[in-house]
UniProtKB/TrEMBL annotation:
GO BP: any one term: tricarboxylic acid cycle
Cofactor field: heme
Protein name (record): Succinate dehydrogenase subunit 3
TM ranges: 24-44, 56-87, 107-126
Gene name of the encoded protein: sdh3
Record-linked CDD domains: SQR_TypeC_SdhC (cd03499)
Xref: Pfam families: Sdh_cyt (PF01127)
Length: 138
């Protein structure tokens, strides 16, 4: 006897909530940040392993000179993911302390977290744009 029903009906029955959406994006941003850390680590190690460094510098020059918009957009997207992940982590720390756990107060820190993440990402993008992508000297 075979029953025709979906395997995961919870995805189609329940409508997405703010807390579940932020939880999913928190996991996605954490995986993206871990991937970016591994990618940056291995890309620098490839240059160290090359015996002549010629191919590594040719590759590096191509990306920085011709495709700088890809690097800038990737850095901005990483900053947005970092700001979201960090703000959501602060929200979870507040939940561990006990406040904002009532049903009427659950959405308030989520909306505040969203605005804080957007504000932090915007400040980082403005700072990067004003410094023309260079590290400021102190």
């Amino acid at each position: 006897m075979k029953i025709n029903r979906p395997l995961s009906p919870h995805l189609t029955i329940h409508k997405p909530q703010l807390t579940s959406t932020f939880s999913i994006f928190h996991r996605i941003s954490g995986a993206f940040l871990a991937t970016m850390v591994l990618f940056s680590t291995f890309s620098f190690k490839i240059g160290d392993l090359s015996p002549t460094f010629y191919h590594f510098y040719q590759y590096f020059f191509f990306f920085t000179f011709y495709l700088n918009w890809v690097i800038i957009s990737l850095v901005n997207f990483t900053l947005l993911a970092l700001c979201h992940h960090m703000s959501n982590g602060v929200r979870h720390l507040l939940w561990d302390l006990g406040p904002f756990l009532e049903l009427s107060k659950v959405y308030t820190p989520g909306i505040i977290m969203l605005f804080c993440a957007a504000f932090l990402a915007l400040l980082n993008i403005i700072r990067q744009h004003r410094s023309n992508g260079q590290i400021p000297y102190r």
